[in-house]
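Appendix B, Record 12. Input sequence as logged:
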Amino acid sequence: MKILCPVDGSDFSRLLMQGVGTVFRNRVKEIVLLHVLPAGHSGKGRIAKNSQAASSPALSEKMARASNKLLHGHAERLKVALNQAGTSRDISLTTMVMKGDVSEAILRASEKMDADCIAVGSRGMSDVPGYLLGSVSRKVVTHASCSVLMVKGALTGSLPVVLALDGSKATNRAIRKIITWLNPDEVTLHAVSVVPERLTDLGLEMLGKRQAKAFMAPVRKQTQVLLADARKKFLKAGFQVDTELLEGNPRTQIVEATQRLKAQLVCVGSKGLSGIERFTLGSVSEWVSTYSPVSVLVMR
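Logged structural output:
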């Protein structure tokens, strides 16, 4: 498994190092730490007033030294986190510095290294020491071609995880990745699937309440079968898992489940279909990644 970790000087980047070690443990084989210098930045959180000053050799060298120092510090923290997690020592750990638009640079780097996952902090500050603002991490979640781990807080100890499922191909992909990437001895899974509480107002008007209720019955049945099948797969792989069928708005139900179950991580697929294959659409995964109070793994 190859992971790209964009870092800045914020506390969230420090949490990111710990989170990668906790979530992926022995599954990771290659990690690239990336620091991006936004175009026109003059250092110490200031934007240069003229491009000539910003491109002076002395300033460029100073910024390069600062970036290398930052990357070295994060590399040491990551080594400690991986050792504490019991991760094998044969991991390839490299660093990279890029210039330009932060989110675009992250996406380019992930494609160049063919990353399996991008791990980002959800918030930083408004200057170069902390550029991983919510807007940057949201752009990465939206446009990345690979999975994205958005770290919003400490991920420690035995990891309670909420996994949101539907009947789409994204669900099958999510199950395979969870089994492959996460350690069953360190994770407790709670798989949920959400049935819409009712049809749209237009659907109710066309079918009537009785017909609408009858229409939703097969959806509930199929959801129960989906959860039962997922449970069998996880149990066979050695995971502790329970399942729950929820009703209501998929976005809010997923987020509320993470709070009620005191999860540290919520996992969602990035794309699904409509109808019964109903909720892992980009809009839902993006909404959950934005409003979830805990860390989010969006799987592609």
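The two ends are 14 Å apart (CA to CA).
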